[in-house]
Amino acid sequence: MRIAVVVYGPLDQRSGGFLYDRKVVDRLRERGATVDVVSLPERAYLQSTLTNLATQLPRRLDGYDIVLEDELCHPSLLAVNRRITDTPVIALVHHLRVNEQHSWLRTQVVEAIEAAFLRSVDGFVCNSTVTRDAVREYTVPEPAVVAPPAGDRFNPLEAATIRDRASQSPLNVVAVGTVTPRKGLISLLEGLAMVDHPWQLTVAGDTQTDPEYVSRLARRAEELALGERLSLTGRIPDAQLAELMSDSQLMVLPSVREGFGIAYLEGMAFGLPAIATDNGGATDFVTHGENGYLVAPSDSAAIADHVSRVAADRELLTTLSMGALDTFQTHPGWADTGDAVYSFLSNLATGQSEPTPPGPAGEAHTRVSE
Fold first, then answer.
1. How much is the pTM?
2. Cβ neighbours for 140, distance < 8 A, ≥ 6 positions apart
3. How many Cα neighbours within 13 Å face the side chain of 170?
C-alpha cells in the first residue's frame, strides 16, 4: 500500500498533532506500507489557499493508493482534492480550526473554507469521539475511524514515588502546551490567584508562536501579583519535560478546545491528575473525580475550587494520582493507534466494505460502498 501523508512543514516538531502524525507514519511503515511525506509550505491562513493553484500537486497525489491529509492543512487543499480523481482522500482530524478563538468575521471565513474541505474528502481518521462529532456538524463523518493518541512517550513514574510526592508543599502545578489563547492560560492564572494554599505554576511550551498573547499573560500575572509563583520555560527538551512532570503534582490546562489533549495523558504517566475542560477530547479519558476534574472553559472559579481541594487534602490528591496512573497504564499505545489507522486505510485501499473491527485503539464506522 502506497500512502501520501500531507502535512505542513517537517514532521519532527513536537506538538501534539505533529507527534500523532509522526507516530502514525512510523507505524504504517512498520506494517509494510510505503509512506511518502508531502510537506506543504505553511503560510498565513488566507495565503495558504494559494497552494490550491498548484497544478502538479493533484497529479502527484493521484498516483498513490491512499492520500492521508492532516486536516490543519485544509486551506491549502480544498480545491486540490476536487482534482484528485482516482485515489481516496482521507482527512486526519486533530481538531477543527473553526473551534479556535477568532473574531466573528474570521470565524465565518474559516468555517466556510473548513466546511468545504471536509466535504471534499472520502473519509476521516479522528483522534477522539469529540472530534468526530465536531466533523458531524458539517458532513457525515463516514467512513471513519477513531484512533486515540497514546501517552507513552515517557516511561511511567513508580507508584511509590507518586505517593511520596503527594505530601510535598507548595503544590506544584504544571501546564504543558504552546502558549496561545486556545490553551486558556489566563483563566488558569485567575483561578490559581483565588487559591489560598501555597502553589507554584510552571508553564512548559513554545512562547514564540504568539508573542502578543505571551505579553498579555505576563501582564495579567503582574495584575494578579503572582510574582515568582509563575514560571514560563518555553519549549524544553523531552528529558527536561520528564523531570518537570516528575516533580509536579497536578496538570491543569483549561483549553478552550482540545481535539484530544495528549499532554493530559502524558502527564498521567507521572501520576498527574488532570484538570481539563469538558468540551474537548479529554472527556474520552478524564473521569471527573477519579483521575482529575472537568470544568467549563474559562471557569476560573471551578479551577480554584478543585485546586484548593487537592492542595488541602493530600489523601485525595494521592487517590486521584493513582487513578491517573491507572488510566495511563490501560490506555492504548502508539502501536495500537497506528494499527487502527493501518487497518482502516487498508480496507479503503482494497475496496472492502466491512468496517475496521473496533480494536483497543479504535472504533470504526464505515459505509458500504456503492
1. 0.79
2. none
3. 17
